[in-house]
């Protein structure tokens, strides 16, 4: 894939960029290593001041950045602005809490290990490589960069090739805020050159948000180099609706949960599993509201759903739906490509999706929802856990015992009760099964790329 900004609303190539040469990549790794040697010696207070300034810059530049996100990947402008502000909030969260999360932890009674003092400390590890996707071009990166730099590490970013201007902005953000030059550097390189960077001895770990095949490939390389990874590889999140649920609220939230960011979110609800007793009513409410969404220019403040970010992504979505319909699934709304420029796809709801259809097991990365009828809570759980993914999940019920039953049994990194999945700096984020390993955000996220060092004193 060319490193280029291609406007998904029009299909027009706005700007192309040359990949960094081997010499330029080497220089940027050297800059990051030098910055790490400086940064690791700074105090939490010093880093926090710089991090808050980075947050200030995001807020000061929110309009320009929002429009850049919309240009590069098609997110409606209001959501793009919100992403910038959420990123600023995430940076401030780690500025406020990094020292607390990484504080030394003394053993209460060191005499049990024959010491006068003993415990653990967290130390930075060095350069961490981030391989990031286009769907949240700022938030995905900054929720890694904030904790990594606050821990005293340096970062290298290999961003998705279709959001190069976002990547270039991030290349200078932290230096502008006061961090040592090189503390965070963007590498404009194709995916084929990631292996060489990861095998460099100065790079100590990696994090990737993206497809399952990409995660497996990076993990295999890191494993051969004995390097730590954090992987977030997408999901096919269930949204379970039980008879005691507030159906009107559940249906309204379901529309947002599926179609946020043009349906291009790893944690978007994708499979709507509804108890037979309320299936007809929920499905009617849900399909009616999906059909009422406004599809159009993402720069228009009245647009609900913009284009798919890439032509290949739109084409794959079209193929997945066509496959399901050809094999017997029923369209409740949508299912067509609008006749207009750009890579648009109508918000779609299907029922009757069965195991021989691609949509049953594959992640649909766009505004396409599949509704399933469940005979019982056991049947709902079987359907919910019946994929290789396990990122997040949602369950709607006002029955306290039923709520606990689902929380205990859902195979997912998160369970949201009577709400839709979202990521918060205050809560760990990550999945199980093929959705990945490790955690981002909260205390767990900053500790992923630290050396947990045991200290014993006689």
Characterization of the model:
InterPro entries: Ald_DH/histidinol_DH, Ald_DH_C, Ald_DH_N, Aldehyde_DH_dom, ALDH_GabD1-like, GABD/Sad-like. It holds the Pfam family Aldedh. This is NADP-dependent succinic semialdehyde dehydrogenase. By secondary structure, the chain is an alpha/beta fold. The protein has 2 domains: 4-233 and 433-457, Aldehyde Dehydrogenase, Chain A, domain 1 (3-Layer(aba) Sandwich); 237-417, Aldehyde Dehydrogenase, Chain A, domain 2 (3-Layer(aba) Sandwich), CATH 3.40.309.10. It has helices spanning 22-39, 44-60, 62-73, 77-101, 139-150, 164-177, 194-198, 212-224, 247-259, 279-291, 311-326, 358-361, 377-384, 400-409, 442-447; strands at residues 4-7, 12-16, 105-106, 117-124, 127-131, 154-158, 184-186, 203-209, 228-232, 237-241, 269-275, 330-333, 348-351, 368-374, 394-396, 416-417, 436-437, 450-457. The model has no long low-confidence stretch (mean pLDDT 98).
Write a brief caption for the model.
This is NADP-dependent succinic semialdehyde dehydrogenase. By secondary structure, the protein is an alpha/beta fold.
Mind telling me the C-alpha Rg? 23 Å
Count of DSSP-assigned helices: 15
Measure the end-to-end span: 58 Å
Please give the order of strands in the largest beta sheet: 12-13-14-11-10-15-16
Largest sheet: 7 strands, mixed
**What structural category arises from helix and sheet content?**
alpha/beta
Bin the helical content: 40-55%
Q: Which CATH class of the largest domain?
A: Alpha Beta
Number of domain modules: 2
CATH architectural arrangement of the largest domain = 3-Layer(aba) Sandwich
Could you state the CATH homologous superfamily of the largest domain?
A: Aldehyde Dehydrogenase, Chain A, domain 1
Mean of residue pLDDT values: 98
Could you please say which CATH topology of the largest domain applies here?
Aldehyde Dehydrogenase, Chain A, domain 1
Total strands: 18
Low-confidence stretches: none
- Portion in strands: 15-25%
């Amino acid at each position: 894939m060319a490193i280029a900004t291609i406007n998904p609303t029009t299909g027009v190539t706005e700007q192309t960029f040359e990949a960094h040469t081997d010499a330029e990549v080497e220089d940027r790794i050297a800059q990051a290593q030098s910055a790490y040697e400086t940064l690791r010696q700074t105090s939490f207070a010093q880093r926090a001041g710089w991090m808050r300034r980075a947050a200030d810059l995001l807020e000061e530049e929110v309009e320009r950045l929002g429009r850049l996100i919309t240009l590069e990947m098609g997110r409606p402008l209001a959501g793009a602005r919100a992403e910038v502000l959420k990123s600023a909030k995430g940076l401030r969260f780690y500025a406020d809490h990094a020292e607390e999360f990484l504080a030394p932890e003394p053993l209460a009674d060191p005499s049990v290990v024959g010491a006068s003092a003993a415990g653990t400390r967290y130390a930075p590890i060095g350069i961490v490589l981030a391989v990031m996707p286009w769907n949240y071009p700022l938030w995905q990166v900054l929720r890694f960069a904030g904790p990594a730099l606050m821990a005293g590490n340096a970062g290298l970013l290999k961003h998705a090739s279709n959001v190069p201007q976002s990547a270039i902005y991030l290349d200078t953000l932290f230096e502008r805020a006061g961090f040592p030059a090189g503390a965070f550097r963007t590498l404009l390189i194709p995916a084929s050159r990631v292996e060489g960077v990861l095998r460099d001895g100065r790079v100590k770990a990696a994090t990737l948000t993206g497809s399952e095949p990409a995660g497996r490939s990076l993990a295999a390389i890191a494993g051969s180099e004995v390097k730590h990874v954090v992987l977030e590889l997408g999901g096919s999140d269930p949204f379970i609706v039980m008879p005691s649920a507030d159906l009107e609220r559940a249906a309204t939230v379901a529309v947002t949960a599926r179609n946020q960011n043009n349906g291009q979110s790893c944690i978007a609800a994708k499979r709507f599993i509804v108890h037979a007793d309320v299936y007809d009513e929920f499905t009617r409410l849900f399909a009616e509201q999906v059909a009422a969404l406004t599809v159009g220019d993402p720069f228009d403040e009245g647009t609900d759903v913009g284009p798919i970010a890439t032509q290949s992504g739109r084409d794959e979505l079209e193929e997945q739906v066509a496959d399901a319909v050809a094999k017997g699934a029923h369209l409740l709304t949508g299912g067509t490509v609008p006749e207009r420029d750009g890579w648009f796809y109508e918000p779609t709801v299907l029922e009757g999706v069965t195991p021989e259809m691609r949509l049953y097991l594959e992640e649909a990365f766009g505004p396409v929802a599949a509704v399933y009828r469940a005979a019982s809570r056991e049947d709902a759980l079987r359907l919910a856990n019946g994929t290789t993914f396990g990122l997040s999940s949602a369950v709607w019920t006002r029955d306290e015992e039923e709520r606990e039953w689902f929380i205990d049994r859902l195979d997912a990194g998160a369970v949201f009760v009577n709400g839709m999945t979202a990521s918060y700096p205050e809560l760990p984020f990550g999945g199980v099964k093929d959705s990945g390993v490790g955690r981002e955000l909260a205390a767990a996220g900053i500790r992923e790329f630290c050396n947990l060092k045991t200290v014993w004193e006689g």
